[in-house]
Amino acid sequence: MRRSDKEITDQDLMDEILKKAQVCRLAVSFKDMPYIVPMNFGYADRVLYFHSAHEGLKVMILRENPQACFEVEINTELVPSEQGCEWTMRYQSVVGFGEVEFIDDIAAKREGMKIIMQQYSNEQPFPVDAVLAGVTLFKLKVNTMTGKQSGAIT
């Protein structure tokens, strides 16, 4: 990382950022075409879980090329200045790389969906197996991740 003064090296802090984030941007590539999509997700033990429809561009790409990149950020705040070129942002972010695996087993789908739902609330009713059968669930096992922060985070 070019700005080592902004680098987050503490894995616990990166895990905290991932657990607080509301949106994960998932980036994939297909035949030299990049594609990025914001998604709801869940995070536990260096694995991100996502749900999707059975068909669509990202699912088609991931079945062909399971390599993916992700990004999340929290605590974003614009910091204006007297000079336009001196405006900045406060933030904490995590970027990582990994490989996607599709989850077909209904018990594993149930566990993955539970992790996704816990990302947002512990009070959500859990979907029945018939609902789980109607969604595609996949996980991204994180190979590497880096964190970055800028400004005083309050």
UniProtKB/TrEMBL annotation:
It comes from Desulfosporosinus lacus DSM 15449. This is Pyridoxamine 5'-phosphate oxidase. InterPro entries: Pyridox_Oxase-rel, Split_barrel_FMN-bd. Pfam families: Pyridox_ox_2.
